[in-house]
Amino acid sequence: MDRTKASRLAALIAIGAVLTFFWHSPFVWPLKILVVLFHELGHATAAWITGGEVVEIGLSPNQGGVTRTLGGWRFFILNAGYLGSIVAGASLLFLGRSPRFAKWGLWGLVAVLGLSTFWLVRPLVSFGFGFALLATLGLAVVAKMANADRSQMVLRGLGIFSLLYAVWDIRDDVFADRPGLVSDATMLAELTWVPGPVWGVIWLIIGLGTLFALRKWLV
């Protein structure tokens, strides 16, 4: 590994360590809600890919989210939430590989969030819409004011956080003892008769395998 890649890897590890240390801090809470939106956009994208429609996306302050769809392949849609968070994280890391392209990548994220907010997040008078709108405006301000190096730091920070949160979320939703919890895993278990924890293991394997396969492109 050359010196440049080694420094990038060290920076990612440092970012991940800091985010993990402050995981339960209120300062990290907005990032968690943002990744929940990534998760729900994964469901929405899967619905569109399989010919379905997206009725609305809802967010709640307790890190909950819901995507209401019509039609489409339900099996694929249910699988696409956690995997969507992983894909989002990997994409942000990839876009942040070079300061030269990080600025454009940050503006691309602003565009995706803005379109998703006004098109999908409902109701208009709700926590979800308000949060998504503020997140879009906040990132737009960062994209406008930050130089290339800081844009890179923001993108890679969001990318590593999305990956961390996906793993944490799978652990909490799939493997924690939370009776009565309705999650993607429990709905898949009802649909396929395959226990929820099995789906959690599959998601983790796919996510980690994808990151390993793309490791040269992400660092």
Order of helices and strands: HHEEHHHHHHH
End-to-end gap: 10 Å
Strand content: 5-15%
Radius of gyration: 17 Å
Helix content: over 70%
**Average of pLDDT:** 88
Largest sheet properties: 2 strands, antiparallel
Q: What is the count of helical runs?
A: 9
Total beta strands: 2
Shape: globular
Low-confidence stretches: none
Specify the structural class. Answer: mainly alpha
Describe this structure in words.
The chain is mainly alpha-helical. The chain is 74% helix and 7% strand. It contains 9 helices and 2 strands. It has helices spanning 3-21, 29-49, 74-95, 99-119, 127-145, 148-175, 184-192, 196-213, 215-218; strands spanning 53-60, 64-70. Strands 1-2 form a two-stranded antiparallel ribbon. A hairpin with a 3-residue loop joins strand 1 and strand 2 (64-70). Helix 2 crosses helix 3 (74-95), helix 2 (29-49) packs across helix 6 and helix 3 (74-95) runs parallel beside helix 8. The longest helix has 28 residues, at 148-175. It is globular. The N and C termini lie close together (10 Å). The relative contact order is 0.14. The model has no long low-confidence stretch (mean pLDDT 88).
